[in-house]
Automatic annotation (TrEMBL):
Residues 98-119 are annotated as: Disordered. It comes from the Bacteria. This is DUF541 domain-containing protein. Residues 1-20 form the signal peptide. GO terms for biological process: DNA damage response.
Length: 241
């Protein structure tokens, strides 16, 4: 029994430092803090989509109206010096409109199944034009023109920051500095000396966020973008000397 007891003690003796090192790696000793930083900026890019659609007896008639309205909208954009790269015009979408689409469908009888296929009552043609604006005043002018032309819909105005990554880096720097100041205050009250950083992790939940504006429903609507907050958060552990 003595040899077995000796082997057991040796195994326990050599395994304890390993467990201690593993625990130390999992929960490193030191002062652990969460740092937060934020930067307040104003959006400088404004995106929205105008939808133009028309229904007519023939596709050519509907297309003619859609093309005419599209041309007037794009002509105004040209006068406002909006670059071609900031305008995205979709291809025409053509959809047949059948009479029964406006009524509740009735069950078919055996005789009806042999009837020839019904022809569409109308043809709908539509196009989407998306604008990326650098001047918010252009939005109100394009919106007013769209209302005058009787466009089908105008999407929600979306505000974006073109240099969001740049401002996020500033927020990240502020978060790291905030964590360092917190650790220094804790070390001072604990009467210990703050050492080097042993652990640092950026929180993925604090990536740059977009802010969306309100939908404009009238030509005299004045679009006023709110300031946008770009935040960052880090978790840091400082050694204690």
């Amino acid at each position: 029994m003595k040899p077995l007891l000796l082997i057991t003690m040796l195994v326990a003796l050599y395994s304890q430092p390993g467990h201690a090192e593993q625990a130390k790696a999992t929960n490193p000793a030191g002062i652990e803090v969460i740092g937060k930083g934020e930067v307040i900026v104003k959006p400088d890019t404004f995106i929205f989509t105008i939808t133009i659609s028309e229904r007519a007896a023939t596709a050519n008639d509907a297309k003619g109206v859609v093309d005419k309205k599209s041309k007037e909208i794009l002509s105004l954009a040209d006068k406002l010096y909006i670059a071609d790269k900031d305008i995205e015009s979709s291809q025409l979408r053509i959809r047949p409109i059948f009479a029964q689409e406006n009524h509740r469908p009735q069950p078919k009888s055996d005789n009806e199944s042999t009837k020839p296929q019904q022809r569409p009552a109308l043809i709908e043609v539509s196009r989407h034009i998306t604008f990326t604006l650098l001047n918010l005043n252009h939005y109100d002018q394009l919106l007013e023109k769209g209302v005058q032309l009787g466009v089908s819909s105008v999407s929600r105005l979306r505000y974006e920051v073109s240099r969001a990554d740049f401002f996020y880096q500033q927020a990240l720097d502020a978060a790291i500095e905030d964590a360092r100041m917190k650790a220094q205050r804790i070390a001072k009250h604990a009467k210990v000396s703050l050492g080097a950083v042993s652990y640092l992790k950026e929180s993925e939940n604090f990536a740059p966020r977009r802010v969306y504006g309100m939908t404009a429903d009238a030509p005299n609507y004045q679009s006023l973008p709110a300031e946008q907050q770009i935040s960052a958060q880090v978790r840091m552990i400082f050694e204690i000397n």
